[in-house]
Amino acid sequence: MHKNQSIIICFTFKAKSKFEYVRKFEQSDQLLPQCWLVVRVDGRGFHKFSERHEFAKPNEPRCIRLMTLAARRVLMEHRSILLAYGQSDEYSFVLHKDTNAFNRRASKLASLIGSLFTSAFVFNWSICFPDRRLLYPPAFDARAVAYPSVRTLRDYLSWRQADCHINNLYNTAFWSLVLRGGLSANQAQERLKGTLAADKNELLFSQFGINYNNEPEVYRKGSLLVRASLLDSQVDAVAEEASVGDNVPDVGEASVEEVSEIAAKVAKAEAESASTLLHIDIIKDKFWTENPRIL
Length: 295
Ligand code: GTP
Ligand code: MG
Prior knowledge:
binds magnesium ion
């Protein structure tokens, strides 16, 4: 670099424009220290999105797979995420309480995780829906919240799993009445008004021969992705294929030595970022006491 050039760059770097003061309008949104951070993404208008894309009712397995592929991508990219829990059109990502990722800024964390999740959802669409065109670009909102203790964090996760259970039981009963019982949506809604969980279980069994407890766990419990390196107990992991572009480096014109070096790096990155997919109870203590290194 020419001597004069460096002087000019130095000068322009140091000089503050008269507009600089507007920075002061930016508010700090740093989340509290030593709190567990949770970023939850949720599909915008997925009621309409699922109708337009003719999702199976009440559960579309291809969409569940796509959501999990997108979540895996987020875990690969953001190493301070310990686990993620997803159900319906949402995924919650839990970051370690000591993380300093993005200076713990709520807007940075939420926007980066939300946008990566959304782009990965679109990027992998054709893998999960090879015969269905994406009709318009979906969006996911994202929020970041700090939880001050393991208790509040676990209560947060329990809340999301309880939501999964309540909605799935209702939806299973509702769509059985409509699709198999021949009721209109209004009639099914009326039929289920005021019913308790036991009533819905009984209705499913007596009218449709469905034992709700035998419904697939992925629908009843949602999906938990945990960093494999943090698991202690023997768990029934669910195998899944990788998504397009996962850990596939562009080796271009690289030599044999360079390619093997890249392959070794990829293998290391894969081992570090590996996550295990589970469909299990996270409300009871069992999973947490058997895997004490997660939280
Ligand atoms: P906002 O999040 O407020 O924008 O509204 P939303 O329409 O996304 O509703 P919400 O997030 O409360 O709920 C998600 C909705 O997505 C459900 O009510 C269903 O209508 C739909 N949905 C999610 N997963 C499935 C699925 O597997 N099959 C079908 N048929 N619908 C689904
Ligand atoms: Mg939604």
